[in-house]
Amino acid sequence: MAMTWRQGIRLLLLGAALLAAQPAPARAAPDPFEAVNRRIHGFNQGVQARLLGPLVEIYHATTTPEARRGLANALANLNEPVTAASGLAAGQAGLAWNAATRFGINSTLGLGGVEDRAAALGYPRRPFGVADALCAWRVPSGPFLVLPLLGPSTLRDAGAQFATTAALAQALGPDIVLAWGTGDALVGYAGIHHALARLEAESLDAYAVLRSAYRQRRAATCPQDRPAEAEDEEAAEPR
User: Could you tell me if 125 and 87 are in contact, meaning their C-beta atoms sit under 8 angstroms apart?
Assistant: First the structure.
């Protein structure tokens, strides 16, 4: 749940790397739900401008960089068991061991994950979720989607995200999972708020740029998604 939420938000940061890119109407990869996606994207933009943006400004004004980094580390540490389980499901024992070891070290020596002691000991963070396990099983990505509040995804990734959330809610309780996911999402958004604002201001078609960025990122982590990403490379051209 939380890991996928955080990943989904961080994917938007890739769009900021394409600030100088503009969409080309031709030769874009299929987007059968584009009309609905664009409406949801517009809704998300409104939420960002009217709610999330002001919240982020308050968060930055009332916390120190060290406190923000510690909170981000602690939330990331909570995701390590999900990473371990997903790694095992994908047959990647080394990744699962790395995540389990990180969780043990950071939960103790790292003061509940506030400090990333595991990285200094040779266990770097390697995000991996249920969606990545499905990719390892060669489950097709399905069509591109934009989720309310959560942003860009695909049918496969969204299904994995909601399945993870449901499983965690069953195990931990819905109140805990809601608080965890909300905090994780807000902290993640705080890290990309200004870059995303620049993207919205400077791009002729922010939706197309974010779609391309999402597909490129997923193609980098899920090789079977590369055909769709290659077709969509034409969705952004230099000015």
Answer: no
**165: nearest Cα among 62, 234, 79:** 79
Answer for the pair 200, 42: CB distance below 8 angstroms, yes or no. Answer: no
Contact 136, 160 (CB under 8 A): no
pLDDT digits (tens, 9 = 90+) for 173-194: 999 999 999 999 899 899 888 8
Nearest by Cα to 5 from 178, 139, 212: 178
Place of tokens 């699962």: 96
Map out the domains of the chain as residue ranges: 2-238
Beta strands at 151-154 and 144-147: parallel, antiparallel or unpaired: antiparallel
How would DSSP label each residue in 17-32? Answer: TTTTEE--SSSPPP-T
